[in-house]
Amino acid sequence: MLASYVKADMMQGLSAELLNSDLLSKSRESSSRTRKDLEKLLSTEIRRYTSEDTSLVVFGSLGRDEWTSNSDLDWTFLIDGGANSDHLLIAQDIQKVFEKAKFQKPAPIPKV
Fold first, then answer.
1. Are the C-beta atoms of 4 and 63 separated by less than 8 Å?
2. Residue 99: what pLDDT?
3. Which of 26, 38, 64, 80 has a 20 to 30 A CA-CA distance from 32?
4. CB 87 within 8 A of CB 77
C-alpha cells in the first residue's frame, strides 16, 4: 500500500488564494497522478511489494502534493514488526524499478 503523509498544520495559515492557485492545483493533480502511476508500476513490476506488515511511504514534495517534473522521489519502506531478508530484497527491487522508470533519486543527506 502506498501511503502519503501531509502535516495538517502546514495547510493552516495559508490563504485561500494560495491554496486555490493554478500552480498549486496543477501540482496537486500531478501528485495524485504520480501516486497512481507509482502504485500501478509497483503492482506490475513487484507483485509482492504489498503485505499486511509493510507500507511504501512517499514524503517530500510528493507527500505534500507539491510534485513537479523536477521533483525527486523521497520514499521509505516501512516494516511493522520484525524485518527479514525478503524485506531487504523488496526494498532493493523497489529502488531498481524507480531507477528504471527514471525517477530522480533523492538528494543525499548533508553531513553535519
1. yes
2. 95
3. 80
4. yes
Distance separating alpha carbons of residues 16 and 110, to the nearest angstrom: 35
Q: What is the pTM assigned to this prediction?
A: 0.76
SS3 letters across 3-57: EECCCHHHHCCCCHHHHCCHHHHHHHHHHHHHHHHHHHHHHHHCCCCCECCEEEE
Fold designation for 2-100: Beta Polymerase; domain 2 (3.30.460)
Residue 73 pLDDT: 95
- Domain extent listing, the chain: 2-100
Higher-pLDDT residue of 111, 4: 111
Q: Given CA atoms 45, 47, 48, 49 in this order, what sign does their dihedral have?
A: positive
Helix axes 85-100, 22-45, angle to 10 degrees: 120
Q: Cα–Cα distance between 57 and 79 in angstroms, integer?
A: 11
Reported as type and span, the H/E element at residue 85 is helix 85-100
Give the model's pLDDT for residue 10: 54
